[in-house]
Design goal:
globular; Rab-GAP TBC domain-containing protein; GTPase activator activity; 550 residues; 24 helices; mainly alpha; Rab-GAP-TBC_dom
Length: 550
């Protein structure tokens, strides 16, 4: 329709095209030209304003983690109100997960809430069903610990009669493949990670096993290629332990069948067949056992203020816990750190038996330490760790497939968000983003404080729990203000931390090593909620462009 300003009887405006007439013809004919001009100008201005508003809001959607929008953490009272009379979370846990995503969890209820976030308990389970799960998982845990003790006993017997190396050969130790440069990158990164994780108050020269951290074993990981006959049925004769020493175990037999009395078991972990087709061998366990003990004794004490009950453990109880797992060389540690180290050893050994494809790799103790600081029962802490490792285990494969995939996603995010920064990284041959390797492996554990780490992990776990439960975009009200749940929130946060330093990187850094030093010096300098806020905006705007299948 064409509007012309030709003068016609009545002082109106003539319409041409589109058939003329109708409502608009009558309205315009009856309207003076000056009023019509003002009306159309106003409509155009309104349309322009709406377009600008839409563009602005799309570029900066409100985040649940922004300073203005962030809400309070989930409180004990709110937590109780989220359950029905039979103990089932209301609405399938949607409200619960929204609350955790936007504000985190009150420290006093974390031990109760984490098993739901980490898949130990289903979001539709009742109190009765969770009791069945708890009993079943405790038994599996105890079987794993008995298996660990059998391995340890055999290792000790071998070391008395003959040299340990001849009795238990490290036949599963990794060897260099044809891709020698890739292998050397892995070695270098692992050695760097292990050297940084040492507690500052433990001197390397005092530990005869310290060479394992810097030698050809790299990460203490040994992929089993020769299943051992040592993985026999569990005996109940040695099932009892000191009641004060919390165990950490689970047996290989426990997940082979679908028990009709435990309908939620599949939510805890992948099946044994899918997770690790190879069984744990005595050779591999001996290697993992040595590295686990080194890392456990070196664990830092940052957790102490957040776990008062464990911080005040008696010296007698700490020593008994250490003896139960065969921990030695801990005289320089205070009782609470001895107890913490003993718990690390128990659970990490049990996990190595549970998942022999991964076994133990340096950095895993960093992920477990916050869990056992919060969850006081070892069997519950173990299954929480299993849930955590469901995704994180790919960080510890020697072939680095999981790590390289994640680094590739970080690179894609930066490329889509900031082409200028990405071109600078290409110029420095750093577009593979290997400088954030440590952030990926230990999930920001070194760059954030203890409390900040937990806050980030809780939000990340809530996203993963939502996806696991099939809660997608449709369940999030006012989706324009909330990023959809993503399996890779951590990677968006890592990309956000790099983008926060874009100006410094572009203007001052001319080598990958300089960027690496910058990333490794972020410890204590990051605001976790600002980081989540920036990650949110990346998820909203780039989520559909970043493919993250695994």
């Amino acid at each position: 329709m064409l509007i012309t300003s030709n003068n016609i009887p009545g002082g109106g405006i003539q319409l041409s095209g589109g058939g003329g007439g109708g409502f608009w013809s009558e309205l315009l004919v009856a309207t003076p030209p000056s009023i019509t001009t003002v009306a159309f100008t106003a409509l155009a201005g309104t349309a322009l304003f709406a377009a600008l508003l839409y563009t602005t809001s799309r570029g900066r959607l409100k985040s649940p983690w922004s300073r203005r929008k962030r809400k309070h953490a989930l409180t004990p009272r709110q937590w109780k109100s989220l359950f029905t009379s039979d103990g089932k979370p209301r609405d399938g846990g949607v409200k619960f997960l929204k609350k955790v995503r936007s504000g985190g969890i009150d420290p006093c209820i974390r031990a109760e809430v984490w098993p739901f976030l980490l898949g130990v308990y289903d979001l539709n389970s009742s109190t009765e069903e969770r009791e069945i799960i708890r009993t079943q998982k405790r038994k599996e845990y105890e079987k794993f610990r008995r298996q660990c003790r059998r391995f340890l006993k055999r290792i000790n017997e071998c070391s008395k009669g003959t040299s340990e190396t001849s009795c238990i050969e490290d036949s599963g130790s990794p060897t260099k493949d044809s891709d020698s440069s890739s292998y050397e990158d892995v070695v270098s990164a692992r050695e760097s990670l292990s050297s940084e994780e040492r507690s500052p108050d433990v001197e390397d020269s005092d530990d005869p096993s310290s060479a394992l951290l810097e030698g050809d074993d790299v990460s203490g990981q040994a992929t089993n290629t020769d299943a051992s006959a040592l993985n026999t049925e569990s005996s109940d004769s040695d099932s009892s332990e000191d009641p004060e020493v919390i165990q950490a175990s689970s047996s290989s037999e426990g997940r082979e069948e679908n028990d009709p009395d435990v309908p939620l078991k599949e939510n805890i972990s992948p099946s044994r067949t899918d997770l690790h087709p190879n069984q744990c061998s005595g050779e591999n366990f001996a290697t993992w056992q040595r590295i686990i003990r080194v890392d456990a004794v070196r664990a830092n004490s940052e957790w102490i203020p957040y776990s008062p009950s464990q911080a005040t453990v008696s010296e007698l109880r700490a020593c008994r816990a250490a003896e139960a797992v065969g921990l030695k060389d801990y005289d320089h540690l205070e009782p609470c750190r001895v107890f913490h180290a003993a718990r690390l050893v128990a659970i990490l050994e049990a996990y190595a038996v549970y998942d022999p494809e991964i076994g133990y790799c340096q950095g895993m103790s960093d992920l477990l330490s916050p869990i056992i600081a919060v969850v006081t029962e070892d069997h519950e802490a173990f299954w929480c760790f299993v849930g955590f490792m469901r995704k994180a285990r790919h960080n510890f494969r020697l072939d680095e497939v999981g790590i390289r995939r994640q680094l590739n996603i970080v690179s894609k995010i930066i490329k889509c968000k900031d082409s200028h920064l990405y071109r600078h990284l290409e110029k420095l041959q750093a577009e593979d983003c290997f400088f954030v390797y440590r952030m990926v492996v230990v999930l920001f554990r070194r760059e954030l404080t203890f409390e900040q780490t937990i806050c980030l992990w809780e939000v990340m776990w809530a996203d993963q729990a939502a996806i696991r439960a099939g809660i997608g975009k449709s369940a999030w009200s006012r989706i324009r203000q909330r990023a959809p749940p993503t399996e890779d929130l951590l990677l968006y946060a890592i990309a956000a931390s790099v983008l926060q330093k874009r100006k410094l990187i572009i203007e001052k850094y001319s080598s990958t090593d300089e960027i690496l030093r910058e990333c490794n010096s972020m410890s204590g300098q990051l605001d976790v909620w600002k980081l989540l806020d920036d990650a949110h905006n990346l998820v909203v705007n780039l989520h559909d462009k970043i493919e993250t299948p695994f």
